[in-house]
Write a structure and sequence with these properties.
Shape: rod-shaped
Largest sheet: 3 strands, antiparallel
Order of helices and strands: HHHEEHEEHE
Oligomer: single chain
Radius of gyration: 43 Å
Strand order of the largest sheet: 4-3-5
Structural class: alpha+beta
Number of strands: 5
Helix content: 40-55%
Amino acid sequence: MASLQDQLLKAGLTTKQKARQANSDKRKKNKQKRSGVEMEASLQEKIKQDLVKTQQDKQAKDQALNEEKKQQREKKEQKLRIQQILQHHQIKNCNGETVYNYTFDSKIKKLYLDAVTHRALVNGRLALCGQDEVTYIVTCETAAKLAELDTTVILLQNEKVQSDHVEEDDPYADYQIPDDLMW
């Protein structure tokens, strides 16, 4: 029995040239199969997949790094904004002989104030704020704005005293209790 190719040649449906071309294509295909060209195609596909995965990992890593840099920049901007508010709204020229003790970074510090500033600080009209080992005296409104940004800046903010006057029928009116004892 003759092959299909021989039968097609006898019938005149194909030429010798086309038959030779088909045989050579068949041999090349078999040779490639034996030499592992198909395995190369699967390796190339795997390499493409690995490349895509590597690109996705790099992109995720870059996004995380950008987010971290953004957060650091926002913290720095907030710190500079707080520093600007403190320097702009601080109360100056309040040095005196009255000592006011407060804590800053777990250390007890002394602040020498005049009587008016000391009274305002004790009564809650003023507050102490600190940043980078520097203490600032600011109004209670400024301290409230700073507390919205960062509560760790506020060192001391007393509650406001509603009134400074003494009632007439108070039996202890002559015996005032000091708000801050000085020794």
